[in-house]
C-alpha cells in the first residue's frame, strides 16, 4: 500500500485536490530547487548517539537491509516531480495528524498513568569504509533504556554492541576475498580509526529522547507535562538542535517529537502539521528501514558533507499506525567517502517502546 492509497482511505477523496496540487507546485517554484545538495556545508559527525543506530555470515534477509536507493548518476528531480512528491508528503502528514487526533488508526499514546518504567529499545548503526579492502563494514549497538515512571529512583540503561562486519552480499564477498579479517583500518566522514570485530563502537550511544542526546534525558513526568501542550511542544521542535543542515535538520528534529509516545496525540499532531508546512520535504513512497520493516518514506533535500559525499535523510513511518519506525541516511553521491551510492550510511530503528512493570534486566 502506498501513501496515496493511505490518504485516499483516510479522506475518501482519492488524493489531493487539484487546488492543493497547484498550491504545492506554486510553493515549490518559489521555495524549492530540485533534489540537489543544500548550499551550506557543515561537517556532519556520525549520528550513533542520535534519535530516531551483524555477523558476516548473517542471513540473506539481514544482508539485504543495508543497501537501497537510486545510485550514482540519478538525475536531479524536475520541478514538476519534486512538486508532486512534496504535495504527497504534505497530504500524508496532514492526514496522519488528523488520524492521530481522531483515533481512526491504532492510537499509540498511553494516558499519563505511568507503570514502573517507560522502556525503549533501539538499534543504531554506522557504515565504515575499509581503507585497503574497498568494502564496507558496520558498527551496530542495541540500546535498552528504562526510565522510572514517577521520575524518582534510578533508571537503567544497557547497551550491546553487535559484532562489527559487512552486511550486504557485495561486502561479504569482498571481505571473504580479503581473507575474512576481524580487524580493519576504516574511515567515515573523513575520520580514520581502527575497528575490531568484537570491539565497542568508537562513540557512546544514548537513549533516543526529544532533547539533545548529549544532555540528560528529561524525566517521564516532565515529558508528559511538556507533551500535553501542543504550542510548547511545537516550539521545542522548532528550536531543537540538529546534526545536519537545512530541511534535513528540521525533518530530523521533528521526527524526535512525533516519535515521543509520551506526548499527547494533539501535540504530536501539531508537529506533524509543522512538518507538513516545510518546503522541500518529499514523499518517496515505500521504503525499508534498517530492520527490514516496510514504511512510508519522507525525504529531505540532499545534504553535502565535508568529504564531498551527498546524503539524503529519510524518515520512515509505519503505514498502519503512523509511528516512527526509524530514520536513515542514504548515500547519493560518494565524494571521497569510498562508499558506493545507494548505501545506507547511518540509521536508527525504534524496536519497542512503552510502559512496563517488569524489573530492568
Topology summary:
Elements: H1 3-11, H2 18-31, H3 60-63, H4 79-102, E1 117-130, E2 136-148, E3 156-165, H5 169-177, E4 183-188, E5 191-196, H6 220-226, H7 230-239, H8 246-258, H9 265-276, E6 282-288, E7 294-299, E8 303-304, E9 310-317, E10 324-333, E11 344-356
Helix pairs in contact: 1-4, 2-4, 4-9, 7-8, 7-9, 8-9
Radius of gyration: 20 Å
Describe the biggest sheet? 11 strands, antiparallel
Mean pLDDT: 75
Note the overall shape.
globular
Order of helices and strands: HHHHEEEHEEHHHHEEEEEE
Measured distance between first and last alpha carbons? 38 Å
Count of domain modules? 1
- By secondary-structure content and strand pairing, the structural class works out as alpha+beta
Characterize the structure shown.
Residues 149-169 are annotated as: Disordered. Residues 156-169 have a biased composition (Basic and acidic residues). A hairpin with a 6-residue loop joins strand 9 (310-317) and strand 10. Helix 1 packs across helix 4, helix 4 packs antiparallel against helix 9 and helix 7 packs antiparallel against helix 8 (246-258). Strands 1, 2, 3, 4, 5, 6, 7, 8, 9, 10 and 11 form an eleven-stranded antiparallel beta sheet that branches. It is built from nine helices and eleven strands. Residues 1-75 and 204-214 have low confidence and may be disordered. It has one domain (40-74, 107-264, 283-356). Helix content is 28%, strand content 26%. It has helices at residues 3-11, 18-31, 60-63, 79-102, 169-177, 220-226, 230-239, 246-258, 265-276; strands at residues 117-130, 136-148, 156-165, 183-188, 191-196, 282-288, 294-299, 303-304, 310-317, 324-333, 344-356.
